[in-house]
Design brief:
The structure is a homodimer. Chain A is α/β, with parallel strands linked by helices. Helices cover about 40% and strands about 25% of the residues of chain A. The first copy, chain A, folds into three domains: about 170 residues, MoaB/Mog-like domain (Molybdenum Cofactor Biosythetic Enzyme, Chain A, 3-Layer(aba) Sandwich), CATH 3.40.980.10; about 80 residues, Alpha-Beta Plaits, CATH 3.30.70; about 150 residues, Maf protein (Alpha-Beta Complex). Chains A, B: It holds the Pfam family CinA.
Chain lengths: ~425, ~425
C-alpha cells in the first residue's frame, strides 16, 4: 500500500463552479500515514468514464478513493459504475438503511426517509462505512489486493469519514512505512537564488529524503520529507539535515515545522504571551479571519475592526480628519493612525492596520488600484510599508496583503 | 474546439500542500466561451508522466492547458517533457529574453537576470504568450489541429494569461458556439425533495439545455446551461424555462442569475440602498471579508467589528455585563445585544452578529463546541437563530456559519 489515486467525480468541479478541496484534505491525511497520492483524476458523472477511470487508477495504485457522485439526484451515477466495474449488483443493505433511518429521525426528517431510501442501496460485495453527517454511505470494494473507497462529495462529510474511519482502517490493515515531514519557511530570497544557495546541500540529501519548493506569495516553503521504517530515526535524520541547511539561509528563515503562517504566528504569540488586534480596511476582515482560524487564538487575539467607511475610521479609531484631508485615506499616515487607534481600542501589545484600494474601480481618493499601506505596531515601535499589486484580482489582493502583513510581523518578531 | 483537458503539474497539489484553484478559474473562463473541460489530470512533475498524460489528454480533447512545472527550480520538468512530446528542442528565445529583462529591470532585480535566463528557453516550435506578472512564459504548441498551452502554476500569473491573452486568442481563432448559464439559488428544500418537485420540468428541458444540482451549505444552486449559435435565442430560451420552473418552487428561490451569495446580497442592498455592518465573534471576520470581497461593497458596507474578547464586546459594543453573567457570552441575548450595539456603532440599516464556539477545545463559557447564535437586525426588527454544528472543523464552521447568516439575511430581505 504505497500509492493512492484519487478520483473526483462531478461536473461541478469541471465546470468551475466548485473548487475541489476534498483532494487536498485526503492527500494530506494519506501523506501522514505514508501513502502517496500519485495522481488525481477529475471526471464527469458518466458511467463509462467512471469505469474507465477506475481501470486506469488501479493501474497506477493499489488504493483508489473516489469522492462525489453519490447524492440522491439524477446526475449521480457512481454507484452504478462501481457495481458494473466490480461485476456486482446493487441491493438494499439493511444495516445501512437502519443507520439512515436513525440519521433522518435525529434530524427530524423522518418524513422524507423514503425519498432517501435508495441511498441505502449498495453493491452487495461492498463493506459499508456509515456516514454520520449525511445520507450517502461510504462503500469499500476489494479485489485482488486492490482497494477502493467511494465517498460522497460534501467536504464536511468527507473529512470525518477519512479521518475517523478510513485512515485508522488502513493503518491497521497494512503495516505502513512511516513518513516525516518538516517545513522550513524562507522569506526575502527569490526562489531561483534560494535554489542556487542550497543546491549542494540538496544534492547531498540521503536517498530516502526529498525536497520541494512551495512558493506562497513572497514566502518560499521548503518541504523536507523522509520515509522509512523507524520513526525516531527519521526525526533524527531530518533534524540533522535541517541543522546543515540553516547556516546557509539562517537570516531568512522565519519558521521551521509549522506550515500555515497563522499557525507560525500562533506559536510565537503564545510563547511570548503577546496580544494582538487588527484594523483592516482593504483586507476587509481577512487578517482577523486568518488569525482566529487557529484554535486557541482567543488567548492572544483580543479583537479586530473593519472601519470600511472613512467616517468610521475617524469615529471609532480616532483618525484625525486633518490627516485624511491632507494625505487621503490611503496613505502612510492614516495606516499609522489606524494602528495606533486600534492598539488603544483593544489594548494590545501588537496592532496591525491596512488601508488601500483593492479594486476594480478607482478608490474614492484617486489613488491607484492595487496600492496598500500597512502598519505593524509592536508596543511603541512601528513599521509602515507600501505594496503596489495592480495585477491582482480583488480577492487575491485581499489574501495576498493579509499573508504579507502577517509574514512581515513574524519577520519582525523573529529578528527582535 | 469543444472539449478541453486540464493538466495540473506539481507535487504540491498531490501532497496536499496546495489547493488547486487554477483549474477552477480556467474551467469557468473556458465555459464562458463554450469550451467544456472534459477532464482534469493532476500529476507529478516527472517527464514520462507528463508525456503520457499529454497523450491521454489529446485523446480526450482538442485543447490541452497545463499549469505548473515552469519555475526556475530543480523540480520543474514540464518544458523538457513538452519538447520531447512534440519532437522539438529547447532554445533561447530572444523576444522572451528581452521581455524577461524588462520585467526584471522594472522590479529592480536586474542583478538576478542571469539566474532566470533559462526561463527564456522555450521549444523552438512554440508560440510564446509573454507573462507580465512572472518570469515563466506561456508556450503554445500546435500539431494536427490540436492545441496546447503551458502556463506557470502561480494563480496570479495564470489569471491574466488566461483572461487577457488565451481566451481572446481562442475566441478569434475558432468560431465558437455561444453558451448561456443561469443559476437559480434555492433554500429551505433538501436536494432530494427538490429533485422530486422539479422532475417533470427537468425531463422536459430542450436538448441543448442541461441542469445541475450544486449544493452549497444548506442552499442548492440549480445551474441551467444552454448552448447554441444564437446568443439572443439562448437567453430567451433559458428565460422561458426559468419562468416555467419558478411557480414550482417560488417561495424557496432567493436569487436568479448571480452565483455567489455575497454577490446576491450586493445586488439587493445596492438596489434598495440599504447599509450594513457586522459584529462577529466566532466567525472571526469572515462575514466582513465575504461582503467586502465584492467590488463596490463600500457603498453599503460601512464597517465590521470582531470583538473577540468578552471585555471588548462590553466595552466597544456596549453589551451589558449582567447579560453576559446571566446567560453566558454564547447566548441569544448576547447575539441580540451585539447586533443592536453594532447597528448603533456603525449607524446602518442592517446589522449582523455571531457568537459561538468554533472549537476544538470547549469555549470559556462551558457551551458545547459547534453552537452559534446569530442575530439579523433590519432597522428595528430582528431575528435570532441558533445553529449546532459540532461535526465541522474550525474553519469549515466559520465558513458555514458565515454563508448561512448571509443566506438568511437574503431570505428575510426577499420575503419582505
Amino acid at each position: 500500500m504505497e500509492n493512492a489515486v484519487l478520483i473526483t467525480i462531478g461536473d461541478e468541479i469541471l465546470s468551475g463552479n466548485t473548487v475541489d478541496t476534498n483532494s487536498n484534505f485526503i492527500a494530506t491525511e494519506l501523506k501522514n500515514i505514508g501513502i502517496k497520492v500519485k495522481q488525481i483524476f477529475t471526471i464527469s458523472d458518466e458511467i463509462e468514464t467512471i469505469k474507465n477511470t477506475l481501470q486506469k487508477a488501479f493501474e497506477l495504485g493499489d488504493l483508489v478513493i473516489t469522492t462525489g457522485g453519490l447524492g440522491p439526484t439524477r446526475d449521480d451515477k457512481t454507484k452504478k459504475a462501481l457495481a458494473e466495474f466490480f461485476n456486482d449488483e446493487i441491493a438494499l443493505d439493511e444495516t445501512t438503511f437502519n443507520h439512515l433511518k436513525t440519521y433522518m429521525e435525529r434530524r427530524g426528517r423522518a418524513d422524507i426517509l423514503e425519498r432517501n431510501r435508495e441511498q441505502a442501496f449498495v453493491p452487495t460485495k461492498s463493506v459499508v462505512f456509515q456516514n454520520n453527517f449525511g445520507t450517502a454511505p461510504c462503500m469499500m470494494m476489494e479485489q485482488n489486493g486492490k482497494l477502493s473507497f467511494s465517498l460522497p462529495g460534501v467536504p464536511y462529510e468527507v473529512k470525518p469519514l477519512i479521518k475517523d474511519q478510513i485512515v485508522p482502517y488502513l493503518q491497521e490493515k497494512f503495516n505502513l512505512n512511516y513518513i516525516h515531514t518538516r517545513i522550513v519557511s524562507v522569506v526575502g530570497i527569490p526562489e531561483s537564488i534560494l535554489a542556487d544557495i542550497i543546491e549542494d546541500w540538496e544534492l547531498a540529501l540521503p536517498e530516502n529524503m526529498t525536497l520541494s519548493y512551495l512558493p506562497v506569495g513572497t514566502r518560499v516553503k521548503l518541504r523536507i520529507t523522509a520515509s522509512g521504517e523507524n520513526e525516531e530515526r527519521l526525526k533524527e535524520q531530518t533534524e540533522n539535515e535541517i541543522q546543515k541547511l540553516l547556516p546557509l539561509i539562517e537570516k531568512n528563515v522565519i519558521a521551521i515545522s509549522e506550515d500555515k503562517i497563522e499557525n507560525i504566528l500562533s506559536e510565537i504569540l503564545t510563547e511570548r504571551k503577546l496580544t494582538i488586534s487588527t484594523a483592516e480596511s482593504c483586507t476587509g476582515g481577512e487578517i482577523a479571519k486568518m488569525i482566529t482560524s487557529v484554535s486557541g487564538s482567543s488567548k492572544y487575539f483580543l479583537g479586530g475592526i473593519v472601519p470600511y467607511a472613512t467616517e468610521k475610521k475617524i469615529k471609532i479609531l480616532g483618525i484625525s480628519r486633518e490627516t485624511v484631508d491632507q494625505f487621503t485615506v490611503v496613505s502612510e499616515q492614516v495606516a499609522q493612525e489606524m494602528a495606533k487607534g486600534c492598539q488603544k481600542l483593544f489594548d494590545t501589545d501588537i496592532s496591525l492596520s491596512t488601508t488601500g484600494v483593492a479594486g476594480p474601480g478607482k478608490g474614492e481618493d484617486g489613488k491607484d488600484i492595487g496600492t496598500v499601506f500597512y502598519t505593524i505596531r509592536i508596543r511603541d515601535q512601528e513599521v509602515t510599508s507600501k505594496l503596489y499589486m495592480p495585477h491582482l484580482e480583488r480577492i487575491d489582493f485581499m489574501n495576498f496583503v493579509s499573508q504579507k502583513v502577517i509574514q512581515d510581523l513574524i519577520g519582525l518578531l523573529v529578528n527582535n
